[in-house]
Amino acid sequence: MKGLCQIEIEYTNGSESIIVTDETWKAHISPVVENTIYHGETYDARLEIDGWSEPGLDQAGWSDIRVFNEQENLILSAQSGPPIRIMQEIEPVSITEVETGNSCLIWVSTW
User: Fold this and answer.
1) Which residues contact 28 (CB under 8 A, 6 or more apart)?
2) pTM, two decimal places
3) Could you tell me if 26 and 65 are in contact, meaning their C-beta atoms sit under 8 angstroms apart?
4) What is the per-residue pLDDT across 52-110, written as a single tens digit (0 to 9) for each?
5) CB-hemisphere CA count at 13 Å for 79?
6) Rounded to whole angstroms, what are the CA distances from 105 to 15, 59, 101, 102?
7) Dist CA 79 CA 37 (whole Å)
8) Residue 32 in contact with residue 45, Cβ under 8 Å?
9) Separation CA 28–CA 47 (nearest Å)
10) Measuring CA to CA, which residue among 73, 110, 68 is closest to residue 89?
């Protein structure tokens, strides 16, 4: 799998920062296992890493990334089309604990 990222930050004081992928980045399997505009998000909470977005995270289980240079002239462009926004959040009706080692999938549709 390959990825390319450029984050442009515009601060309230008018200054800017640009963060790009490089050899200092790390990788780890995400609890978001699928995310599409048409089918929503599939999230596996068993893959959560406590504190993953906080300073001081122990990255011992994380992998170094490899920088690829096959296409030196890549052009980053913004996603075309309207942005994806949260339109509704649905609270669970109930939560059922299952025995360790068993899986439980409950699908509730509001359509």
Assistant:
1) 49, 52, 61, 62, 63
2) 0.52
3) yes
4) 888 998 888 899 888 777 666 767 677 777 777 888 888 888 877 777 766 666 665 55
5) 6
6) 47, 31, 13, 10
7) 13
8) no
9) 10
10) 110
Rounded CA gap, 42 and 36, in Å?
A: 9
For residues 26 and 49, what is the distance between their CA atoms, to the nearest angstrom? Answer: 14
Buried b / exposed e over 7-29, threshold 16 CB at 10 Å, is eeeeeeeeeeeeeeeeeeeeeee
Nearest alpha-carbon partner for 69 in 25, 24, 21: 21
Token pair for 16: 């800017």
